[in-house]
Design goal:
Length: about 110
């Protein structure tokens, strides 16, 4: 893939992958999750520029199954969302409400 076909993101975000062979279209949700979790606001800007804001928000709402608690508020402020809009947050809340604790099975 040429550089025009991928976002301008740092290789450090994808240290365990062959950066030059990442399929930026096939792995959208995983890429968005990784950059949101470990990236800077400038890198979030690059996600929005490359994938479009509606697609990034769509992934946050419908696809991303984990985000660290400490960035939920920051994500909500940046993307003008509420915690309940995020799939990870709503799944976590429903587990809390039902008493389900997946970590207890480990």
């Amino acid at each position: 893939q040429s550089s025009e076909n991928k976002p301008n993101l740092k290789k450090r975000l994808f240290w365990e992958y062959d950066f030059d062979h990442i399929d930026w279209q096939q792995e959208v949700s995983g890429i968005i999750e990784r950059v949101i979790e470990r990236g800077t606001h400038d890198e979030w800007d690059e996600l929005v520029k490359y994938y479009k804001k509606a697609n990034v928000i769509g992934s946050l709402k419908n696809d991303i199954v984990f985000l660290p608690d400490e960035i939920i508020e920051e994500v909500c402020q940046y993307f003008k969302l509420k915690p309940n809009d995020l799939l990870w947050y709503t799944k976590k809340q429903s587990q809390r409400d039902t008493g389900f604790n997946p970590a207890a099975d480990e």
